[in-house]
């Protein structure tokens, strides 16, 4: 879907919309992205908290929706549960979207890069309309180009029923938000701690490689025939759409994060601008340590990063990190 161009004013702002279930690693991811993009010397980088239920953050956000509405206060005032309070807050944000627009306009000028850390209630992205409407208004009023980053915990790959649910959730978010979309398997450095996967990691990165029979045999094991038929129908739905694939990441692993950011830049149309900025910085200051790091990561990824054996890479990364930690303890 082509992004709107900001009320005819020609200005463009870039935004990552980071969504996913609670515990998928959204806040850790946003902190990692902020760090990596700062190494790339990207100017006008901001992180915005859109989670009214958050208690504390591992980083200092530049704009906090809790200044407008807080889920804890809403739950106490209206005697709502956690999910109901989040829905109330998102609808309140939609009604007061001018507040968000004014705050963003005051901190993020044309060409700014904004990372939106979103709530962990997946219904807000997969079926509810308020969050989608907020994004549409930001597109029209401020000229935002958005890409959605949907995080899925790699632990779900250990159970095919859970993984099928994650695929369907990813599909629902893609169809509901109607944005450029990248699904990610997060915490891939922890794969070894969950035991051996039933299939190679590449099969989980591209679920279209899994046949309906593979889903049925693994996801329906031990269940009654009616659940077997349900699993078959859901697997066929995934096969019919064939829209969902996953990018593997570990926030502490610069190689996987850099590969993801290259993909996101292409989705946003940010690549040409980033290249121009990098050349300007190099012309003014010469090659810096941060630029050398980025160049090394580019070289390590090869042509588009397609040749990387991610399963082997994350196994080595986790082993090396564990070795470093033991060395520090000794």
User: What's the total count of β strands?
Assistant: 7
Instruction: Determine the number of helices (DSSP H or I, runs of at least 4 residues).
Output: 14
Rg calculated over all Cα atoms? 21 Å
Proportion of strand residues: 5-15%
Structural class: alpha/beta
Helix content: 40-55%
Net shape: globular
Average pLDDT confidence is 84
Strand order of the largest sheet: 3-2-4-1-5-6-7
Topology readout:
Layout: E1 13-20, H1 26-39, E2 45-49, E3 63-64, H2 71-78, H3 82-95, H4 97-107, E4 113-117, H5 123-126, H6 130-142, E5 144-153, H7 160-177, E6 180-186, H8 201-205, H9 212-219, H10 225-241, E7 247-248, H11 254-268, H12 271-285, H13 289-301, H14 310-329
Parallel strand pairs: 1-4, 1-5, 2-3, 2-4, 5-6, 6-7
Helix pairs in contact: 2-3, 3-4, 3-6, 4-6, 7-10, 9-10, 11-13
Overall description:
There is one protein chain. The protein is an alpha/beta fold and 330 residues long. The longest helix has 20 residues, at 310-329. Helices cover 53% and strands 12% of the residues. Helix 2 packs across helix 3 and helix 9 (212-219) runs antiparallel to helix 10. Strands 3-2-4-1-5-6-7 form a seven-stranded parallel beta sheet, with helices on both faces. The termini are far apart.
């Amino acid at each position: 879907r082509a992004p709107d161009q900001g009320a005819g004013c020609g200005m463009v702002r870039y935004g990552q919309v980071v969504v996913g279930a609670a515990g998928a690693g959204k806040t850790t991811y946003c902190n990692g992205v902020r760090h990596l993009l700062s190494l790339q010397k990207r100017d006008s980088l901001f992180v915005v908290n859109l989670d009214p239920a958050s208690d504390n953050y591992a980083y200092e956000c530049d704009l906090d929706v809790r200044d407008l509405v807080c889920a804890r206060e809403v739950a106490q005032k209206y005697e709502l549960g956690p999910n109901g309070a989040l829905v109330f807050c998102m609808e309140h944000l939609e009604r007061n979207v001018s507040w968000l627009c004014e705050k963003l306009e005051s901190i993020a000028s044309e060409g700014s890069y904004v990372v939106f850390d979103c709530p962990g209630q997946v219904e807000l992205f997969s079926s509810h309309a308020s969050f989608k409407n907020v994004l549409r208004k930001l597109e029209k009023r401020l000229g935002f180009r958005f890409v959605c980053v949907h995080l899925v915990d790699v632990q779900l790959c250990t159970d095919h029923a859970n993984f099928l649910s994650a695929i369907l959730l990813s599909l629902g978010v893609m169809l509901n938000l109607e944005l450029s979309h990248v699904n990610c398997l997060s915490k891939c450095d922890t794969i070894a701690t969950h035991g051996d996967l039933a299939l190679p990691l590449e099969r989980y990165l591209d679920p279209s490689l899994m046949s309906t029979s593979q889903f049925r045999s693994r996801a329906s094991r031990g269940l009654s025939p009616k659940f077997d038929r349900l699993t078959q129908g859901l697997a066929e739905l995934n096969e019919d759409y064939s829209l969902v694939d996953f990018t593997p990441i570990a926030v502490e692993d610069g190689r996987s994060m850099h590969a993801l950011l290259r993909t996101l830049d292409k989705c946003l149309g940010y690549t040409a601008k980033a290249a121009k900025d990098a050349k300007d910085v190099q012309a003014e200051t010469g090659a810096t340590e941060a630029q050398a790091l980025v160049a090394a990561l580019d070289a390590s990824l090869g042509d588009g990063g397609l040749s990387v054996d991610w399963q082997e890479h994350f196994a080595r990364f986790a082993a090396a990190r564990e070795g470093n930690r033991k060395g520090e303890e000794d």
